[in-house]
Automatic annotation (TrEMBL):
Signal peptide: none annotated. Its EC number is 3.2.1.4. This is cellulase. Pfam families: Cellulase (PF00150). GO terms for biological process: glucan catabolic process. SUPFAM superfamilies: (Trans)glycosidases. GO terms for molecular function: cellulase activity. PROSITE patterns: GLYCOSYL_HYDROL_F5. Coiled coil: none annotated.
């Protein structure tokens, strides 16, 4: 694992394009069982437990979840399984609604802040949020319509009011347009200024369909 050996952190996401689903069924809600879900994480955690620079992303962009509380229970079980496998890596906990930063404070956030870590505190449980800047927060349009200032101001206030918790903006981006040059710059400046509540960001780039920055 050369990148890890050079000192970089590596993010593992499982079932990236399944969004908490398998063959259309949602984990523990008509689809795979929690036992199946945690079995995968037990295997991954066992393999990478000796690599502290590897970060585990529990799931990419869950959405349209019938019961958010049931989903959060699945997240808790995954956390427990990872720790039982002997891994003390940082964990990224996803919410609902495509991991939307905007939805987090009112949807999954109030439940996810109750997830516990068998290690004894929550400093290694980081919330995983996404937010694009186009008209529908999909990242599929070339023009930006917002700089997300209000969204991240609200998110930061929520995190600080709930135990000074932390999040990472693990997906954002905008088109190669004048509006996005301005709005993305404003967004990222706010994220940087919000450290350590917001730990940082990663840009989702290189999609030829709409020429993301």
């Amino acid at each position: 694992m050369p990148t890890v050996q050079r000192g970089y952190r590596m993010l593992i996401r499982i079932l990236k394009h399944n969004y908490a689903r398998w063959n259309g069924g949602i984990i523990a809600q008509g689809g795979p069982t929690n036992a199946q879900f945690t079995s995968i994480w037990t295997q991954l955690a066992t393999k990478y437990a000796s690599q502290p620079r590897v970060i585990f992303g529990i799931m990419n962009e869950p959405h349209d979840i019938p019961s958010v509380s049931t989903w959060v229970d699945s997240v808790q079980q995954a956390v427990n399984a990872i720790r039982a496998a002997g891994a003390s890596n940082f964990l990224l906990l996803p919410g609902s609604s495509w991991s939307s930063a905007q939805a987090f404070p009112t949807e999954a956030g109030p439940l996810l802040v109750q997830v516990t870590d068998p290690l004894g505190d929550t400093s290694k449980l980081i919330f995983d949020v996404h937010q694009y800047l186009d008209s529908d927060n999909s990242g599929t349009h070339p023009d930006c319509t917002t700089d997300n200032t209000a969204i991240f101001t609200t998110l930061v206030s929520f995190l600080q009011a709930n135990g000074n918790r932390q999040a990472i903006l693990s997906e954002t981006g905008g088109g190669n347009t004048a509006s996005c040059e301005t709005d993305v710059g404003t967004e990222l400046a706010l994220v940087k200024a919000s450290y350590p509540t917001l730990l940082g960001f990663t840009m989702y780039v290189g999609l030829p369909l709409h020429g993301l920055m």
